[in-house]
């Protein structure tokens, strides 16, 4: 929907689907899936993906060009604020001063749940250093609000655990976060299939970020296209406004007057 862009740090983005680059069979499959998704913002794990820091190895930039996509360096694999800040400083050097970043500081290697104390500390440092911070967080409305107040340009609560494919487990918390936010709320983690993405958008999320749901599908390229359509459909449904739910009350869909007798 070109007339309904996602606004991040004052800049419009046509696609509300953001995608990752991990877990694909190879860089070629990564490229094909991202093209099929229609995404414009592509997130890259700096600690796990070569974008130039290893000159003798294949680089993701060979297939995902910064001329065609907005790269979103992320801190996947970081467990302290210090490591996360150091990683994004490196990313800024590698990408010629690029300031748009995704912050995540994990608290547990099994659940990959965020450590919100370390996340808040890293966010404060990064914002002061001029980074435009999109931040992975728990679905705690208080934490989400504090991250916004620090100066993060988007909050990214999990729908369920990273890579779980469990979908949106707590829509009520997401609605509270959305209703109180003045920055985009983007679901990050837990989406498993297209209907999950549509539900997130119908709740009023500004976008959805995903990786595993596409990369680990039996046909990643086909799933990528499905996810792009689902995000658009969910956004349109949200804007249209669904009919009210009527408990124990039916309503005829055809006229009740002028019946043939």
Task: Explain what this protein looks like in three dimensions.
- It is built from 8 helices and 10 strands.
- 41% of the residues are buried.
- It has a 5-stranded parallel β-sheet. A 3-stranded parallel β-sheet has the order 6-7-8, with helices on one face. Strands 1-2 form a two-stranded antiparallel ribbon.
- The protein has helices at residues 27-37, 81-94, 116-128, 141-150, 171-180, 194-202, 212-215, 220-240, and strands at 6-8, 11-13, 17-20, 41-45, 70-74, 100-103, 132-137, 154-157, 186-188, 207-210.
- It is 35% helix and 16% strand.
- Helix 3 runs parallel beside helix 4 and helix 6 (194-202) packs parallel to helix 8 (220-240).
- The model has no long low-confidence stretch (mean pLDDT 90).
- Helix 3 (116-128) links the parallel strand 6 (100-103) and strand 7.
- It is globular.
- The longest helix has 21 residues, at 220-240.
- It is of the alpha/beta class and 261 residues long.
- The termini are far apart.
């Amino acid at each position: 929907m070109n007339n309904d862009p996602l606004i991040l740090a004052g800049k419009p983005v046509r696609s509300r689907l953001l995608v990752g680059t991990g877990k694909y069979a190879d860089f070629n499959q990564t490229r094909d899936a991202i093209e099929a998704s229609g995404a414009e913002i592509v997130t890259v794990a700096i600690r796990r993906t070569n974008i130039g820091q290893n000159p003798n190895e294949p680089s993701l930039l060979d297939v995902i060009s910064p001329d065609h996509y907005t790269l979103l360096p992320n801190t996947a694999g970081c467990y302290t604020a210090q490591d996360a800040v150091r990683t994004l400083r490196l990313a800024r050097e590698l990408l010629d001063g690029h300031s748009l970043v995704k912050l995540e500081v994990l608290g547990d290697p099994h659940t990959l749940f965020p450590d919100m104390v370390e996340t808040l500390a890293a966010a404060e440092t990064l914002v002061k250093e001029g980074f435009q911070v999109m931040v992975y967080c728990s679905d705690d409305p208080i934490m989400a609000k504090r991250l916004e107040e620090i100066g993060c340009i988007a909050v990214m609560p999990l729908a369920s655990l990273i890579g779980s494919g469990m979908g949106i487990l707590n829509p009520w918390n997401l609605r509270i976060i959305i209703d109180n936010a003045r920055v985009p709320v983007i679901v990050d983690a837990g989406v498993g299939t297209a209907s999950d993405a549509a539900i997130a958008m119908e709740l009023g999320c500004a976008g959805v970020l995903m990786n595993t749901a596409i990369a680990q599908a039996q046909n990643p390229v086909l799933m990528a296209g499905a996810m792009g359509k689902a995000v658009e459909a969910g956004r349109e449904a949200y804007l249209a406004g669904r009919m009210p739910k009527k408990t124990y009350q039916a309503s005829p869909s055809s006229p009740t007057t002028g019946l043939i007798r």
